Amino acid sequence: METFTQLESEVRSYCRNWPVMFNEARGSYVYDDSGRPYLDFFAGAGSLNYGHNNPELKTKLIDYLVNDSIVHSLDAFSVAKRDFLKTFGEVVLAPRNLDYKVQFPGPAGNNAVEAALKLARKYTGRETVISFTNGFHGMTLGALAVTGNSMKRGGAGVPLGHTATMPFDNYMDGQTPDFLWLRSLLEDSGSGLDKPAAVIVETVQGEGGINVASKGWLRGLSALCEEYGILLIVDDIQMGCGRTGPFFSFEEAGITPDIVTLSKSISGYGLPMALTLFKRELDVWEPGEHNGTFRGFNPAFVTGTAALNTYWRDEVFCKETLAKGDMVGDRLAAIAAEYPEAGAHTRGRGLARGLAFAQEGAAKAVAAAAFERGLLLETSGPEDEVAKLLPALTTSVPDLEKGLDIIDESVRAAVKVPLAV
């Protein structure tokens, strides 16, 4: 590890919890340089919904590269981009009656969010964007301004303005706000809230602790935005591409956002790629007004197209994910029920799941114990109070059960509960 210690910045984080040298990866497993396997319930923070080195996608990628096909093209036309756009329109947009334009804003999720915020402000001529408690939208300045985590916000080094924070669903003592609070602010000229350009929301807050917004809350938010002429942005960077079952996480609520951000698993292979989708009438960009060198990474178009063709031409994959998610949720609930003294409880939808603890340090201890037993987990939430499960959607049921067995063992080993009197 000396090379990393000597040369790499102290900002590195995941390697501190997983102090091994990873070398290979296949399906739902990664292997260190000694050959030890680790079952992966992290999946590149949701970037590997179809597993590591998925053979269907890898074959397409290798064929593309072997033929000296173009790799870098900025926003010039290319066959790979054409094929991706055509497939995305046919497989994703048309069946859902979504008349969205597609923007390639850059390689990462924060690029998609920055483009969404910038477009909303340009279209409306307004500045303020409403975000929600415990939301996370990226580490660049615009995205940080709508992110709740104080540690991450503190790294900006400058004021983060032109935003307003409102309570997420269930934030206030488990209550579901009915939006009277926001309506009152919008109606009162003395509230101090300028009419917003947009609202940005995650339907399930991943980094914020696997906090799930109810369908009713999302529908109420959508209706309020429509009533007041506020654009609704859904950040589906981590929860999109099937993580909650349907391709988009907002489908279950029956809403149609004005703008949607996608990244992480949209390339299907862990390759950098991001999309900003928006209703056709919002496309008020001037040519080159929002730019970037790595908007046309053609290998990602190739694997993204392969993922759509392989998994999203019918409803089978969605149904399998929902069934797996129910199984994982039931098992986690059974584990949590054994530790009421630690305040253990479950959260999540689909294959985005969390085992949360009121006991300080419990989730981090569980993740550490799981790593020792060959399972990769991360934690989330403002106090790292949630052991977070993001397995690849292609993970087999036996491997899911194996991982849950390890979690069960890890909780028993790590969580301290008071002795019975």
From TrEMBL:
It comes from the Bacteria. GO terms for biological process: ectoine biosynthetic process. Its EC number is 2.6.1.76. CDD domains: OAT_like (cd00610). Pathway: Amine and polyamine biosynthesis; ectoine biosynthesis; L-ectoine from L-aspartate 4-semialdehyde: step 1/3. It is an enzyme of class 2 (transferase). Keywords: Aminotransferase, Pyridoxal phosphate, Transferase. Its cofactor is pyridoxal 5'-phosphate. PANTHER family: DIAMINOBUTYRATE--2-OXOGLUTARATE AMINOTRANSFERASE, DIAMINOBUTYRATE--2-OXOGLUTARATE TRANSAMINASE. Belongs to the class-III pyridoxal-phosphate-dependent aminotransferase family. This is Diaminobutyrate--2-oxoglutarate transaminase. It comes from Nocardiopsis ansamitocini. The lineage of its organism: Bacteria, Bacillati, Actinomycetota, Actinomycetes, Streptosporangiales.
